[in-house]
Structure formats: structure tokens, C-alpha cells
Write a structure and sequence with these properties.
2 copies of one chain form a homodimer. By secondary structure, chain A is an alpha+beta fold. Chain A has 10 helices and 4 strands, in the order βααβαααααααββα. A 4-stranded mixed sheet of chain A has the order 2-1-3-4, with helices on both faces. In chain A, β3 and β4 form a beta hairpin. In chain A, α5 runs antiparallel to α6 and α5 crosses α9. At the A-B interface, α4 and α10 of A face α4 and α10 of B.
Amino acid sequence: MAGAIDFYFDFTSPYGYIASEHIDALAAKHRRQVDWHPILLGFIFKQTGQVAPMQVPLKGEYSLYDMKRSARYHQVALNFPAEFPKMTLTAARGFYWLKDQDPALAHSFAQRVYRAYFVDNRDVGSTDVIMEIAAEVGIDRAAFAAALQSDPVKDRFKTENDRAIARGVFGSPYFIVDNEPFWGADRMMHLEHWLKTGGF
Amino acid sequence: MAGAIDFYFDFTSPYGYIASEHIDALAAKHRRQVDWHPILLGFIFKQTGQVAPMQVPLKGEYSLYDMKRSARYHQVALNFPAEFPKMTLTAARGFYWLKDQDPALAHSFAQRVYRAYFVDNRDVGSTDVIMEIAAEVGIDRAAFAAALQSDPVKDRFKTENDRAIARGVFGSPYFIVDNEPFWGADRMMHLEHWLKTGGF
């Protein structure tokens, strides 16, 4: 099987959420696997000197509008959260801890976190809520709570985030396949064309 | 006939150029006209506090790559200019002066300026080159030169640019139709879906 699609996303990113609802099916159609990598845009923006689009005059207002319309365009359910964005470090740390033990469970957890935020408007910035979500997908609560406090788990996330930056990741969603980078939910069409044609 | 599509673009914008090669056909398919409006991102970025993507670490490198790949994806000829970006105030001023007299000629001029820059790599920041391009599409050289020096022509551009900002335009290309805004060459698909469905 050809190489996996690396899928980088922040749990607070609406375009990342939209992509998360489509990327697995897109990949399967072209016999690729998807390797999910949560990142933290807050850290990345600080390192690259970026300003969140929502904070730019005119662009901010448009972006909020575009996020909602993009969800409709891509037929993804979205109830835009009243509190936006969220700092999603806990979810990201928990994800990698899970991934090392059970990648399929980590994937279910990630999808549930995204839907919890963008459909059910739960506070995914809260450690308690992340623990609840973990419990809902069958993760042992005590083990998860302990992991979140452990230094190796904290370091693991930091290493992953730094590695993403080293690979050029500066936004969410960001895909890399066959060393080809694609930024944005709107670039899934380019990505699909790439997979279909073997490069263009 | 339903309302026109307002098409805002900077002559130095690669994504604006890509859009310019497709927007007329897209509009015609849905029985709409296109009203072309050159703007200056330099002025708009200053007012909205934006930084050009090319100047952002990681994003800059990716953007250059994405511009070229987007041109291939949209099947638009592109020889990326060695000198980029350009300050295209002269072309924009000339366009509006022409538009008041002969909109079809202004349209030909605009397309030729875009191709001169993104295909033939001519220096569209130079007044001499803009005068040459004007002559090539049959514009009277002396009248054009005089117009470029006149205060009403300078004011006309400023008014157009300010009006664009007042309508929320913060990037290139930017489309407004039926009061619905679309930013980016990649949003032409949303725009087309909008025209097809009457809103979604």
C-alpha cells in the first residue's frame, strides 16, 4: 500500500473539523491510510508570527461566515460554538497517549472531541469534559487522568508539535502525502486530484 | 437578468489572475455579468493590519508552491514572475479611466495586464510597460498618458478602493453577488454552487 496521508489539525479548528469528516473516506477511495496528528495552532502561530484570521479586521467577520458556509458546502453538521476558539492541549496530549496503545481508539476519541465541540458545543478546552469524552468512548478514566499529568505524555505532544513545524505545518487542516503539502479543507480537492493522477 | 458578480482583484495577485481566467465563463453559464474592480492590496493590508502571506514564515514558502499548483489545477498558464509582488497602481488607475469610456476595452486591457505579468513576465509595475500594453489593445497612448496624471483619475481609483474596503473586501480575488461574499479563487466552487442553487 502507498504511503499514508498525514493529517494535521487543531481540535479548535472548524476547517480541521470539516476535513476530519471527509478525509478517511477520501483516502480509502484511493487506498491510502490516514495518520491523524493533532497540533496546537496557538503555539505554531507564536513561532511563525501569525495572527489568527478571526482577529484580522474584515477577514475575521468573513471567516466566521465562511466557516459556516463551508460546512454546508461540504455537508458537515456544524453548530458554531459560542465560545471560540478553545485551547485544546489536553485533548491533543490525550490523543497521542491513546494512539501509542490503540490507534483505532485514538481515532474514535478524536472524532468524538471534534463533534462534541462543533455539534454539541461542549467545552473541549476543559479537562473534565475531555475526561468525560474519553470515558464515553471506553477509555479507562483513571489511567487517562494519570497519563495527562505525566511528563512523558506532555513531552510526547511537544515533540509531535515541533515535528509538525519542522515539516512546514503552519495551519489546520494541513495534509502531507508523498511529501506533497496541502493546506486547508479547500485543498482536499487538490489532494484528491493528486492521489488520482499521481501528481500534477 | 439577475445582478452582476462584482469581481475584486489586485493585478499582482496570482489567485486573482487564476480567477480572472475563469470568472467570465462561470458567470455566463449562469447568465450573470461580471463587473471587474481592480484594487490595491497594499493599501488594504495597511488599513486592516494584514501581513502578506508571502512574508509569513512557512506560509510564504507554501504559498508560492500553492500558487503554482493551483494554476495547474485550474489549467491556467503561469510563469511565476521573478519579481513579485508588484505595485500596480498605474494599471488600476488606467483601468477605471477606460471603464468609464469603454467597459469592453477596459476588460481586454485588464486581461492583457494579467497575462503580461503572469505569462510573459513583463514589469506591470512600470508605467512605461502599462502604456505599452494599453497601446497593444488599441488605446490612444497620449490620452492614456494624460489621464494617468489627472487628479480625477487618481481620485476615482481611491474612491473605488475605499468602497471595496467598505464592502468588506480584504483580499484578492474577492467576489460579491446577491450580497454574498466569496474570498479566494478556491471559493469559485462555492460561488458556482450559490448561483446554481440560489443560495445554500
